[in-house]
Amino acid sequence: MLGNQMAKVRTINSKRKKTQYSQLKAVPARPSPKKEKKEKYGEYSGSFLANHKSQFIIGLMAIVLAIGLAAAYSYLITNYTVTTIYVEGNVHYTNEEVIAMVMEGYYGDNSLLLSLKYKDRSVEGVPFVEKMDVSVLDPHTIKIEVYEKALAGYVEYLEKCMYFDKDGIVVESSDKVTAGVPMITGFQFDHVILHEPLPVEDESIFKSVLNITQLVNKYHLTVDKIYFGSDDTLTLYFGGVRASLGSFVDLDEKIMRLQDMLPSLTDKKGTLHMENYTEDTKNISFEPEGGTLEEIQG
Fold it and tell me: DSSP readout, the chain?
């Protein structure tokens, strides 16, 4: 009986050892601190190299992009700088003033940017100008075409020049006298409103103004002032010479004769009497200021 108990004890002890051995075998072996440190260092080193390589590539790409942009900028500045400008159609504004309006702002002298800025678009909103068209003829040459408003004349009102068109509509107000546009005097008005007709009693006077300016231009003359008398007479002023034309009869022939006579009256002051002019008139009287009456052939 004792022998059986001893056999049981051995069997139990053997099972316990086997169980403990199995449990020990199931627990994974922990790496040594030195090996663990080495593995962590390897992971860190690989990550650092990968990040460094990415940053290097990004930096290289940024440098290449910067060089490309600098080269493109240099090319645009060098090859598209405007050096020649043609201006056509301007009277009220000088060439320099027109150029300054069109080429304002940074890089305003770059033909490529100008072509983009004014593609299918005109310059508008400029006083006395309907529009300005800009054409790029080549990388260094542009043409500016100015289309000014058709001005028949101007009247003085409150120390301003009030310009009106062929229909008597006041289109602009300015302190500046425009060459080639005559001052109109002799009719009365008590107010002037921009973009509205001049308030005159007889609106047919605007047709007379247009007719006179067309005749003057036809014979290549420049009239400074047109005076309409209350007795339906007409006087034109050319510098210091006052041409008293009388009625509107034979107006075309009178102005044609002026074309022949005015060159001989340069730098003179006085009145040219053409009130009684007819097609058969040979000589015309000129009355200089402070002088005696003389005959002018034309």
Answer: -HHHHHHHHHHHHHHHHHHHHHHHHHSPPPPPHHHHHHHHHHHHHHHHHHHHHHHHHHHHHHHHHHHHHHHHHHHHHHHSB--EEEEES-SSS-HHHHHHHHT-STTTTBHHHHHHHTTT--B---TTEEEEEEEEEETTEEEEEEEE----EEEEETTEEEEE-TT-BEEEEESSPPTT--EEES---S---TTSB---S-TTHHHHHHHHHHHHHHTT---SEEEE-TTS-EEEEETTEEEEEESSTTHHHHHHHHHHHGGGGTT--EEEE-TT--TT--EEEEEETTS--EEEE-
Mean of pLDDT over the chain: 83
pTM over the 0.85 mark: no
Q: With a cut of 50, say whether residue 199 has pLDDT above it.
A: yes
Residue 21: predicted pLDDT: 47
Per residue in 73-107, pLDDT tens?
666 667 889 999 999 999 888 999 999 999 988 88
Q: In whole angstroms, how far apart are CA 139 and each of 100, 105, 134, 212, 218?
A: 19, 19, 13, 44, 39
Asked if the model's pLDDT at residue 63 lies above 90, the reply is: no
* Domain boundary assignment for the chain: 41-79, 84-148, 153-297
Q: Does 3.30.200 match the CATH number of domain 153-297?
A: no
* Cβ(184)–Cβ(224) below 8 Å: no
Residue 12 has pLDDT above 80, yes or no: no
Q: Are strands 283-288 and 294-297 parallel, antiparallel or unpaired?
A: antiparallel
